[in-house]
Amino acid sequence: MKIKLLTFIAFCLFTTQIAFSQWVQTGGPIAATNINGIFENNGKLYIGTSCALYSSDSNSGKWDYSGDISLNIHAKKGDSLFVGTTAGIMVLDLSSPDSNPVSYGQTLNSVNIYAINSTDTCLYVGTRNFGFKKSKGFSDKWEAFNDGLPYFTDRITGSKLRHVTLIEHLSNVIFCVTPDGLFKTNVSPISWSPASNGIPDPSKIKFLKAIDETIFAGIQNKLYSSSNKSDSWEEVYSFGSTVSSLNKFGDDYYVTTLGNGIYISRDKGVTWSNLNSGLTDLNVTTLARIDTVLTCGTSSHGFFYKKGNDWLKNNEGIICSSVRSMAITSKAIVANDNEKVYSSTNGNSWNEITPPVSKRYFGSVVAMDDTLLLSVENDPDSPFIIYSEDDGSSWKNLNHPVPFGRDDSYSMYISDKTLYAFEDEMMYATDDLGADWWYNLSLPSLYCNHFNGFVVYNSIPFALACGYAELLKLNSGGKWELSNTGLPTDLQLDDLTKTTDALYVNVHGTGMYVSRDAGNSWSFTSNKLDLNDVLDVSRGIYSSTYKGKTLFITTSNGVFYTNDYGQNWKSLNVGLGNKFVTSIKIFNDTLYAGTNGNGIWKHDIKNILLSNTEVTKIEDRLNIYPNPASDFIHIQAENEGNFELKIVDLIGRQILSQHYLSGGKIDISTIQNGTYIIILNSNKGVLTQKLVINR
């Protein structure tokens, strides 16, 4: 029996992490973009934004997502980019376009990094609590050098700590900034001494830069310099707003400020003039020269490059919005962040449909057929709900507001043209847009006073209260009663969701449980992922959606799905740049994922939704030997002939690609140890098999 291509693809999606379609970032929604670093490497331009690292082949080209890291604290050594985080150092190999940031060793894994700097042979870091550390030869062997630096006493623990917030160096002198001012030391031996003579209020230094053999320091809007290794300082200039960066290109000096844009001096800092023509944001955070072109980054309008006398903006491809929720109508996908609401009919172009309300932020958006409802938290007034019946062109208040108010926006749920609005322990429902709030579904005092979740399943409302094992069902008398048989009685229930024929609940710290009898009994799902991994829902489920019996859930570590009632889970993360997915919806057999910082992504799921009965097993159609293998493998396929062969790793990166004649030998000696997927393509279909390399 021949294997049909579509059937085989469905099987591969079901049994491995390899997807034959993957996540693609949509064109929005567009939000404010902060740039915190610009650099060039091997002809490619990189910018760090408030949400991720992006790269482009030119100043005016489209930006591509390059990793979930920021450039606030970074140093570059060759093709390695070292980035400081609140939990240690991440390193990114810039020579490999498919590489992901990885933790830089183990020593600093839990250390909050405040500063990074480097020489040809050493990497320096400034930390919170542990002071100054040095790594010789860029290894993971770190030594602390804090002699002469001031201590700070932790108000809670009483421990004596050292903080280093900035690091810079000249040829043989290192400088660092602490909350007590500026200090310096020789490269060897390292012993710190005060270096703030002549700087008023050195505890406020927020900027440090070495150019040639001169060290510069910025305090608010004033720039200071020392050409004698900090023995004395003098004020260079007082700018209109806070100094954010300093650069020298040729004989010209450039200063960026947070409020007055860019200044240039052609006489070594004696006089300065603005260089702002075309800048739409004068809060300039960083400046760089790429070849002969000036570029800059701003705090909200993104990236600019200089062309002639004017600055031109280029943010194409940069999506930095954080999505709170999404809704689906028959025509569009609708999404909101804290301050704006957007709509798209194709997931590529987005229109803003924000209602004209005085607001603190928007809570969530839901859809009742083609009617949109939006919850709003209005400060200092009470929260409220508005709706639109014309795709967001106009918005109206409900006929009557929700009969209770809290200090947060309402959570909303739609079922059978009924709107359920709830917050804390209170819930009311309406089926006529608030003309009559016909039912009080609030939690009685018998149960913990907060809704942790709510769904309507087979016309029956189910709720999670915040107490142990408090899964509730609304009985025929309109009263909440426990429906938790089979659930742990000593744990809180965090999340509640459903498919067409099952209910699911996430038990805090334990995992998912399922009920296939309308909540009368519950059983533990296996929580097993492919490759014997385990689905981690310890931090909760952020969103879920379903089609038929296939359930999709999102976590802070990506998207997962099951179509066998939780007995097996599959990850769906190939190509997904930001795995912190806050909202998920299905629109026309396309899965849309809203992320915490990188907009909305989409994934075709037609093949995933195929039923298991349509999947044909193919393990006996492809033979790879030896397996496990070391340096060479042989492949025998059911359909003898010519194939295009690919070897990919378990997150979808291509490791090897070549033409292959059945029966030949494949050299795998250059591939690292690990587990891979072999894919054989021909005009008769596709075959795949797992390969283990172990030498």
- Terminal-residue CA separation: 36 Å
Low-confidence stretches: 1-20, 611-620
Number of distinct helices: 1
Oligomer: single chain
- Return the average pLDDT rounded to an integer: 88
How would a textbook summarize the main sheet? 4 strands, antiparallel
Key features?
mainly beta; 46% strand; Immunoglobulin-like; 2% helix; 695 residues; disordered N terminus
Task: Describe the structure in brief.
This protein has 695 residues and is an all-beta fold. It has 1 helix and 65 strands. The radius of gyration is 29 Å and the shape is globular.
Structural features, described:
- It contains 1 helix and 65 strands.
- Mean pLDDT is 88; it is low at 1-20 and 611-620.
- A hairpin with a 2-residue loop joins strand 41 (418-423) and strand 42.
- 2% of the residues lie in helices and 46% in strands.
- Among the domains are: 355-442; 445-524; 617-693, Immunoglobulin-like (Sandwich).
- It is mainly beta.
- It has a 4-stranded antiparallel beta sheet with strand order 1-58-57-56, with no helix packed on it. A 4-stranded antiparallel beta sheet has the order 2-3-4-5, with no helix packed on it. The chain has a 4-stranded antiparallel beta sheet with strand order 6-7-8-9, with no helix packed on it.
- The chain is globular.
